[in-house]
Specification:
Elements (H helix, E strand, L loop, with lengths): L16 H20 L1 H8 L3 H23 L3 H20 L9 H9 L6 H16 L6 H21 L6
Helix pairs in contact: 3-4, 4-6, 4-7, 5-6, 6-7
Length: about 170
């Protein structure tokens, strides 16, 4: 029984059925594991992290601007920036954007209907924005603080519930 001149597997260059079955099982299990652990693999490789970092940096910059406007008692401008920050987080973390002719209230309702976000937090942001933008009287300090508290709650929920949209 010499193996000289013979195939590694069998005579006549035929691959045994057992080898094919084992290979098929290994490929199927490997594909399943790749699919099952795809998010961890992507996170480990750092793919997609740049987009998240850019969104988070933009939100942090906006929060600093909101604090500065608050110190200057510029509640109207700060409330508009709060609203824009909520939209950025909604699009970036939840994949929910604002339609071209969609009102603030309509977007708020759309976000509330998701079921995984606190309606009170969203409502506080929307109310502060609507009063600052369209109200006859200026926004009070308490109304602004309620909106800011709502924004912080929304950002916490959006980053824990949502992932960077993979679209």
């Amino acid at each position: 029984m010499t193996m000289i001149g013979n195939s590694l597997f069998a005579q006549n260059n035929v691959i045994p059925t057992e080898f094919l079955l084992v290979s098929l099982v290994v490929i199927v299990v490997g594909a399943f594991l790749l699919f099952y652990f795809r998010k961890q693999i992507i996170a480990a490789l750092g793919v997609g992290g740049v987009k998240k970092t850019i969104i988070e940096q933009e939100i942090e910059q906006r929060l600093v601007q909101i604090r500065q406007l608050h110190r200057q008692q510029m509640f109207r401008e700060a409330s508009v920036l709060m609203w824009q920050t909520m939209i950025l987080a909604s699009e970036g973390f939840l994949g929910v954007g604002r339609a071209p002719n969609e009102s603030a209230r309509q977007l708020g309702v759309k976000l509330m209907n998701r079921g995984d976000l606190d309606p009170g937090a969203i409502n506080a942001i929307v109310m502060a924005f609507e009063k600052a933008r369209y109200g006859q009287t200026p926004l009070t300090t308490q109304e602004f603080k309620d909106g800011l508290s709502g924004l912080h709650q929304f950002l916490q929920m959006a980053t824990s519930v949502g992932e960077i949209s993979e679209e």
